[in-house]
Structures are given as structure tokens and as C-alpha cells.
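Late entry, evening session. Most of the bench is empty. Finally got around to the prediction I had been postponing all week. Sequence below, unchanged from the version circulated by S.P.
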Amino acid sequence: MSLRLRQISRRRWVWMIVCVAAALAALRQLMQPLWNDPVITLRIGETYEYMEAHSTAPFSVWDRGSKTVSGGIPKTDARLRFVDPQYGFETPLARFFTVTFVNNLTVSIRMSPQIEPLLIEDAMKVVTDLQSQWCAKGWKPMGTQGDPTITDTPDWRAYVRQGVLSGRSFWQAGDKYQAMLILGRFRDSRHLDQERYLITLAVAKPWIPFDEIEDRRLESHHFLPPLPEKGAIPCPSQPS
């Protein structure tokens, strides 16, 4: 009798181990995107199939194959890897991330390169890192009389802290791409005692003809953003 009980007990332990192993395998599968920092890899003008073949994050698309506009979003938090031999860059993980296609070709990206509203120190780090990447790759700041590049200075922090205005900068990569970067204060219901900020990034082929606009400054703002000091270089350096 005791031998039979030992056999039953042993079988229960084996079954329990099998169940635990299966549960861990399933959990690993679910958590794999989080461990691997999933990436959506895009090129403006490339196909959906290119994105699918080069990305590590699963993607949900609607109206695929439409001859008009279609779109989609990653199924998990994901980085953007913007592919170009000269102008490529990469963002932090993003939760809000949309891609627009026309005739199955990527035409624009709109995203918030963060997974939650950030404290000003963290938000400024993301913004200045993106601008530094663009500077290093040959992107040029545009419309700086009205929308100077965002820098991590007391004046800029005071400007966006008002909660009414957003910092905004425009960048252009030759005649190929244009980017709009916005930093604004956000009321986060989970952190009502803290100042939190949202970043918005849009990338597409050039849509604003800056070379045809002499001065966007008064058109853009009632309250002007901080201008760089006289003699400062247009591209902000990475904070140390």
C-alpha cells in the first residue's frame, strides 16, 4: 500500500512539474516582446511586407491592400527603427504608435516615443536625444524663427511648464523626409501631484514648404518660445 501511495505521489509531482514547465513556457511566449525590446522597422515609401519582414514586434493592420489609405498599430510596446542609409534613427519604446499606408506603401508615422507620461527630466532626455540623432545624421532644423529647437534649459522648462503651450521643432532630411517633434505638459490622473509630459513625433515626406515661408514666428505663437542664445549652434548637443 505504501509503495502504491509513493507511486501516486511521484506521478503527482511529475504532473505538477510538467504543468509548471508548460505555464512558464506560455508566460515566456507572452513576455518575449517585453524582454526583446520589440522593434517596428520602417522605410518611408517601402511596402507593408518590408516592415513585416524586418520588424520584431507583431503588427495589427486594417484595410490592408486598399488602394486608398490604410493603417495599423503594433500589438505591443515597440521602438521605431527608421531605416535610411543616411538619415536613419531610433526611438525609445512607444505605446501610441500608428503607421499610415497608401497603396500598401508606408507614407507616415505618428507616435509618442514613451510608454507613459514622463517627468520633465526624462521627457527632455528623449527629446534632446532624438534631436541629437537627427543632427548627427544630417537632418536640419527648419522654421527656427518661429519654432526653435527644444533645449533642456530653465527657460524651456518654464515655457512648457505653463501647461498651455507646447514646445515644437521641425526637422528636414534633404528633400526626403520631414519630422515634427512636440513636447507638452499632460495631466496624468495617476500622478496628480507630479508634472508629467507627453511627446509627439510625426514623420513623413516634406509637407510644410519652409523655403517658401519667410517668417513663421508670429503665425505660430502668441507667446514666443525661448530663442537660442546669439551664436549658439542650431543643433543642440546631447546633455552630459
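Two things to note before I forget:
Helices lie at 2-35, 48-54, 120-137, 154-161, 217-220.
The chain has three domains: 1-35, 39-112, 120-220.
Will write this up properly tomorrow.
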